[in-house]
Amino acid sequence: MDGRTVARSMRGSIGMLAMEWLMAESTTAKAAERGLPASTAAYAVGRLGVLGDCPVDNVVAAAYFWNPDTMRALVHEGRAAATPAEGAAVYAQICREWGDEKLEGFEGSQRLGELCERVVANAAPHGAPTFVGWREMPLPEVGPGRTFQLCQTMRELRFGRHAVAVQASRMGPLEAILSGPAGEWNAQFFGWERPYPDVAGLAEQRDQIESTTDELHAPDFDCLTGDERGELRELAKAARGFASGGQQ
Questions:
Q1: Cα–Cα distance list, 52 to 37, 78, 92 (Å)
Q2: Taking a C-beta distance cutoff of 8 angstroms, is the pair 166, 116 a contact?
Q3: Residue 248, domain member (yes or no)
């Protein structure tokens, strides 16, 4: 299997698998129990805490799709409760716990982790700051939690490639959100206020962004053989199904 094919599959497998824990109410609840805000500010100092104690606008830039004013406010709120290092550690632990729960009994877990770890170790850091931050987070011993943390890191890798693709297209982040699959719901979540611009004519440009994302992501899989790329694709799909309550 070529790199572009496996790169495209990551959006619907590892991308969605990792998004579920980031968006879960249980993640926010666990974060609050451990000293982070009981709000989206936990996400700002947790998921994005891996960027370190950097200027707030570095976080805004790395988050990319968020309304800048909204993200600035969330970062300030989050940092009032915990340092970025503390927030990142809390989120990484919650990530591992999610994996221990959701991937327990998944027979392909260890192999999925091995393949992801090779991609993570070899991927170029350019344009992917949250990926680099998650790559630097300590990993636990071999097990479902380790595999899931690597899946989360892989999600950040594609996220970085996608953000670069959007910027290269000259489409703004709000237009990219609105023309995507979750549309106005995502725009509202990311802090953008109505009225929203008309994006009816952006479908072709949006499709090109996805293609560019795949092209940018494809070299990340050069460290795998063609057979291993196919194996990763199938294991990632199976893991998402298993975590969602399906059977192997």
A1: 18, 13, 14
A2: no
A3: no
Q: Is 108 helix (H, G, I), strand (E, B) or coil?
A: coil
DSSP 3-state percent helix, strand, coil across the chain (nearest 5): 75, 0, 25
Report the largest interatomic distance among the alpha carbons of the chain, rounded to a whole angstrom. 49
Sign of CA dihedral 204, 18, 28, 82: negative
Query: Quick check: 221 and 7 in contact, CB under 8 A?
Result: yes
Nearest to 131 by CA among 114, 113, 155, 166: 155
| 34-78 confidence digits (pLDDT tens) | 999 999 999 999 999 999 999 999 999 999 999 999 999 999 999
Contact by Cβ (8 Å): 229, 1: yes
Helices (H) and strands (E) in the chain, counts: 14, 0
* pTM for the predicted model, two decimal places: 0.96
Range of the domain at 208: 3-243
The three state secondary structure string of 12-25 is: HCHHHHHHHHHHCH
Q: What is the pLDDT of residues 122-169, one digit of tens each?
A: 999 999 999 999 999 999 999 999 999 999 999 999 999 999 999 999
- The number of distinct structural domains making up the chain is 1
In a domain, 197, yes or no: yes
Domain-located, residue 72: yes
The DSSP secondary-structure symbol of 106 reads -
Q: Does some domain include residue 176?
A: yes
Q: Tokens representing 175?
A: 């237009």
